[in-house]
Amino acid sequence: MTTVGSLFTGYGGLDMAVRMALDPAAQVAWTSDVEPGPCRLAEVRWPGVPNLGDITQVDWSIVEPVDIICGSPCQDLSLAGRRAGMASGTRSGLWESMFEAIKTMRPRLVVWENVRGALTSGAFSLVESEKGLLGDRADGSLLRAAGRVVGDLAGLGYDSQWCTIRASDVGAPHQRERLFVTSHPAGEPWQLRGLADAGEAAGRGTL
């Protein structure tokens, strides 16, 4: 059975989408949120499933490993927000805690969803702890939030793919463009079980 770990759970939309797209039979093993509304909703949506609470305080070595980790810390990257970027002390800087979970658990798939602003908001990294240390542009760092996420995952040996999708692309009456990054251990791409079974059946001439 495929298991899912949900970070920055909110109302659970990303978790439901991941299950619908990849494995409808997948089970959410744990969630993580601190806001009262999402916490109450998670109790109703996934009764009995533990909420890990504050992601910055979790000891990932004692948390149940999962096949998929998904999350979406986006507040400081949105064009509608402060644009504080991805750095320690910002809401989007919570990526560091998500990264620790991935590094410890080594899931088969990571799904990171965010606003389009992740392509333009600045990001902190140890490579460039101050603006202007890397690159030759006078206006500061070239590193962007999405680039940091993909770079951090590459450092763990994960390959990534990404795309942006508008809500209107799937029939909604508004734009609401979102960036999706999916990552898997190099050489081990996620494979839908149903499609794999169909391929094997076709190879045996049973379709």
Describe the model.
The protein has 207 residues and is an alpha/beta fold. It has helices at residues 13-22, 36-45, 95-105, 145-155, 193-203; strands spanning 3-7, 27-30, 68-71, 109-115, 158-165, 178-185. It starts with a strand and ends with a helix. The model is unreliable at 76-84 and 193-207 (pLDDT under 50).
Question: Which regions have little confidence, pLDDT < 50, spanning 5+ residues?
Answer: 76-84, 193-207
- The geometry reads as globular
> SSE string, helix = H, strand = E?
EHEHEHEHEEH
Give me the secondary-structure category.
alpha/beta
The tally of strands reads 6
**Main sheet record:** 6 strands, mixed
Strand content: 15-25%
Give the N-terminus to C-terminus distance in angstroms: 25 Å
How large, in whole angstroms, is the Cα Rg? 18 Å
The main sheet orders its strands as 2-1-3-4-6-5
Percent in helix? 25-40%
Return the average pLDDT rounded to an integer: 79
Q: How many helices?
A: 5
Question: Brief description of this entry?
Answer:
With 207 residues, the protein is α/β, with parallel strands linked by helices. It has helices at 13-22, 36-45, 95-105, 145-155, 193-203; strands spanning 3-7, 27-30, 68-71, 109-115, 158-165, 178-185.
Which features characterize this protein?
207 residues; alpha/beta; 6-stranded mixed beta sheet; 17% strand
SSE blueprint:
Elements: E1 3-7, H1 13-22, E2 27-30, H2 36-45, E3 68-71, H3 95-105, E4 109-115, H4 145-155, E5 158-165, E6 178-185, H5 193-203
Parallel strand pairs: 1-2, 1-3, 3-4
Antiparallel strand pairs: 4-6, 5-6
